[in-house]
């Protein structure tokens, strides 16, 4: 049995802005990739319980890419979103309002079986850190 991976980061922005930037496709394409060799070429989201999301990540030289897609299972506005990917893995994103201008994000996700746990933790954290920098800068 593989246990979920948990990563978190604190962002110096209000929770409503962090929430919007995390789930709004116009922002997702700006931050949803692990390194500058990657890009998010598509972000579609029917943001509601039962709605589908589909994000496309491609290596800039077009040598590799994949879709990150699934369904939204539960939304509690400005607090959390529970989803599952097309392969059945579950993801939970928590938004903790620390104060009026500080938000902590906690991501809990079931790892896939092809890459090491550490590689997945590093990759997911790199994306979350890119998100953190994007939100604080914009």
From TrEMBL:
Q: Which residue ranges does the record assign to the Activator of Hsp90 ATPase homologue 1/2-like C-terminal domain?
A: 14-136
Task: Identify the domain of life.
Answer: Bacteria
Q: Name one Pfam family in it.
A: AHSA1
The family note in this entry says:
Belongs to the AHA1 family.
What's the protein here called? SRPBCC domain-containing protein
Q: What is the lineage of its organism?
A: Bacteria, Pseudomonadati, Bacteroidota, Flavobacteriia, Flavobacteriales
């Amino acid at each position: 049995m593989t246990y979920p991976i948990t990563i978190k980061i604190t962002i110096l922005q209000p929770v409503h802005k962090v929430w919007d930037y995390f789930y709004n496709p116009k922002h997702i394409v700006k931050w949803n990739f692990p390194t500058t060799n990657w890009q998010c070429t598509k972000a579609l989201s029917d943001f509601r319980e039962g709605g589908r999301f589909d994000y496309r990540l491609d290596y800039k030289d077009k040598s590799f890419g994949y879709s990150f897609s699934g369904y939204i299972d539960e939304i509690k506005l400005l607090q959390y979103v529970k989803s599952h990917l097309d392969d059945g893995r579950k993801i939970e994103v928590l938004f903790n309002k620390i104060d009026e201008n500080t938000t902590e994000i906690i991501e809990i996700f079931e790892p896939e079986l092809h890459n090491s746990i550490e590689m997945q933790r590093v990759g997911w954290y790199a994306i979350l850190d890119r998100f953190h920098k994007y939100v604080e800068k914009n």
